[in-house]
Amino acid sequence: MAKGSANNVKVNQDAGKSQPEKKENKDFQYIVRIANKDLNGERLLPLALSDLKGIGERLGYVIAERLDLPIDKKIGELKEEQLEKLREYVEAKEYDLPEWLLNHRREPVTGKNLNLVSTDLEIQVQEDINLMKKIRSYKGIRHEKGKKVRGQRTRSNGRKGLSIGVVRKKE
Questions:
Q1: For residue 136, what pLDDT band results from cuts at 50, 70 and 90?
Q2: Are residues 60 and 47 in contact, defined by beta-carbon separation less than 8 angstroms?
């Protein structure tokens, strides 16, 4: 055997190790559609729900507990009846949850506490901003001018446009 030939031989180091076999489930869904959004079926139920705009991780856990769904299961492992129950609950705007957990409290027209999801939330936020502009509130005027709305300082941050820099005097 030549000296250099031992270096050219590749040894399979993983050959002795046993790899755990993945259990294939025929009912597993890799993509679950809820509220017009595709959710990754390989994520745990509360975490997958938090991918929806308007539902955070905490609300995802609360929804799973309210519907008696297992929080340690992946969303793709749920049965079709469970998924349908979940879809109906998420897409309903009124939840039987504490007020502090909802994202649209005391709606101006009806006075109800709602939790909006996905495009409903985006549309409602835009309508609220337009209402503030229409009634000429302080926040509405700040929105119109493109300035900071929530009381942040504007002296040094939030500048838009070209940066000019310091101009030196000509000598």
A1: very high
A2: yes
